[in-house]
Amino acid sequence: MQKGFSRRIFTPAILAGDVWFILKNIPKFAAYRKNPSFKRAFLEKIMSVVTAVNGCVYCSWFHAREASAAGISQDEIDDLFKLQFDTQADDFELPALKYAQYFAETGRKPEPEETAAFVGYYGEKTATEIMLFIRVILWGNLLGNTYDAFLSRLKGDPAPGSSAVFETLFFIFNFPLLFPASLLMKKDAKKAA
Fold it and tell me: Do the Cβ atoms of 136 and 22 come closer than 8 Å?
């Protein structure tokens, strides 16, 4: 059995790059969210697929709720989190969901020909907009996972190659966001039980 926290987490370099990417793209993200071809359900499907790959418990909880609110059935939500979306996604959604899964599984390092095929299918503008949503949820996933890596370290199960100092600072900085989320998750779990 493998010891160590196994979900993808931030390193200082990845975090710095992602913060810069998010900051410079906030105006685009706000504009793209209003794009009529991007229905809320479609965006939640993308968020759910990337989250399924990265295993962030906070994002899984949040996006399952959001997907339900967007009109996605519980069966389809369950399938998205199992990465079994081929039969329920329509022709517009399916290539985006497959690329989102691939992008996340490769740790943001897709083969150029895969990206070219993705852009070829959607066109430059739409593909760029979809990729922005993929990057935003990846950021959220790593945020939650890095927070959990610190908690795992406290239990004697650290993430391989991670820095205790970085995780501690990250935890302190993100505690105001993720601690309340963890309480809400527990409250929802009690209601469901």
Answer: yes
Fold of 12-188: AhpD-like (1.20.1290)
pLDDT exceeds cutoff 60 at 2: no
- Whose tokens are 């059935």? That residue is 73
pTM: 0.92
Question: Are the C-beta atoms of 147 and 171 separated by less than 8 Å?
Answer: yes
- Angstrom distance (rounded) from CA 41 to CA 16: 30
The owner of tokens 């609110």 is: 69
**Two structure tokens written together for 10:** 């931030």
What residue spans define the domains of the chain? 12-188
| Alpha helices, H only, 34-155 | 40-54, 57-69, 74-81, 93-105, 112-122, 124-154
- The amino acid present at 177, given as its one-letter code, is L
Read off φ and ψ for residue 90, nearest 5 degrees: -85, 180
pLDDT at 54 over 80: yes
Query: 124-161 burial, b for 16+ CB within 10 Å, e for fewer?
Result: eebbebbbbbbbbbbbbbbbbbbbbbbebbeeeebbee
Tell me the torsion sign for CA atoms 56, 57, 58, 62: positive
pLDDT tens digits, one per residue of 115-174: 999 999 999 989 999 999 999 999 999 999 999 999 999 999 999 989 999 999 999 999
- Asked if 64 and 98 count as a contact pair (C-beta separation under 8 A), the reply is no
